[in-house]
């Protein structure tokens, strides 16, 4: 476990009053008992943990001594500190990257997530209720692949955006994270090699961690993956390439047409399976949605993961997978193991929302344009040394702070502000100076949060 991951898991552990070693030991012990820090794992070196937490090394050493005395860990000179099995519960396979999505207190200023509030289209549809439910009440309510009407609506939507699709090529999921986990699980086994963009979506990194795969990041170079490094990585025999070529999370950049074709060429010359995250494709600052790899990559080896959360609302738990019809049948059987079907009510609401997708896209584009300008103005005023590249879309800026952003995030915790530093988005804990800053917060809230951290 790296120091950055442990810091993420710890959350706001430092008290206003009391001894720091006791509080740190209590926080780590709590993680052990909950299974977030499993038996047998090595804690990060004391010097690295102290640097990540912004505290003295002696504080960490004292906390470790307390853990050893209480039976949570064993320490051996030259061998580090290891968690004892007698105190630890089963491993959860989490690294803390998605802790932004826990229920934070109202006093906490959350700048760690780019999730947008409900759109006007979503609010209007939700206010109208579900009028089409009666015919489904006479069924058992289980539609593992999704309601036929929603699969058709999604297929029509994708076809209109120049990705011809049949309903048989759609599997409705309970959100995009469910789609990503299902898609990854269908392709890899523990120990397999997975390639991904670096930086990348942190939810995907959590899935890779839970599946026990090896991960190699391919650096982003301006308008897309470094194709030369991708070609080299293909020689290692990966099972999967995970990427985002429409609107990239967290950088907000779009892969150029030339680069997209080059990536497709490398993929088509290999045997690798591709999972493309298209979740932010509709959040383009330009007119229309950003394109994807569909039509360029062999359709038998391309799986697309999509969501309604970006355009409409995260509380509507509707995502989907687009893939070849044979693969959709396999994925449908696989999803039954842990999730028999998606809510019929949510699916019917999604049908009505997707029928207004162009309206919702225009609404989001206007919001993001306006808020981006306001956010950049606040950053230039309060953080004039911070730098960022112009974005093509998405709800966030990828900002170079010029300092250790993980340490900045740790300091921010202590004053009630949650930040998302670069290592959360990297398979190799890279991008140490980077922060992902959401652009949708109002100016005063953003200003207040930045002034105290």
From TrEMBL:
<dbReference type="Pfam" id="PF00392">
    <property type="entry name" value="GntR"/>
</dbReference>
<dbReference type="InterPro" id="IPR036388">
    <property type="entry name" value="WH-like_DNA-bd_sf"/>
</dbReference>
<keyword id="KW-0805">Transcription regulation</keyword>
<dbReference type="InterPro" id="IPR036390">
    <property type="entry name" value="WH_DNA-bd_sf"/>
</dbReference>
<dbReference type="InterPro" id="IPR015421">
    <property type="entry name" value="PyrdxlP-dep_Trfase_major"/>
</dbReference>
<protein>
    <submittedName>
        <fullName>PLP-dependent aminotransferase family protein</fullName>
    </submittedName>
</protein>
<keyword id="KW-0663">Pyridoxal phosphate</keyword>
<dbReference type="InterPro" id="IPR051446">
    <property type="entry name" value="HTH_trans_reg/aminotransferase"/>
</dbReference>
<keyword id="KW-0804">Transcription</keyword>
<comment type="similarity">
    <text>In the C-terminal section; belongs to the class-I pyridoxal-phosphate-dependent aminotransferase family.</text>
</comment>
<dbReference type="InterPro" id="IPR004839">
    <property type="entry name" value="Aminotransferase_I/II_large"/>
</dbReference>
<dbReference type="Pfam" id="PF00155">
    <property type="entry name" value="Aminotran_1_2"/>
</dbReference>
<dbReference type="InterPro" id="IPR015424">
    <property type="entry name" value="PyrdxlP-dep_Trfase"/>
</dbReference>
<keyword id="KW-0238">DNA-binding</keyword>
<feature type="domain" description="HTH gntR-type">
    <location>
        <begin position="18"/>
        <end position="86"/>
    </location>
</feature>
<dbReference type="GO" id="GO:0008483">
    <property type="term" value="F:transaminase activity"/>
</dbReference>
<dbReference type="InterPro" id="IPR015422">
    <property type="entry name" value="PyrdxlP-dep_Trfase_small"/>
</dbReference>
<dbReference type="InterPro" id="IPR000524">
    <property type="entry name" value="Tscrpt_reg_HTH_GntR"/>
</dbReference>
<keyword id="KW-0032">Aminotransferase</keyword>
<keyword id="KW-0808">Transferase</keyword>
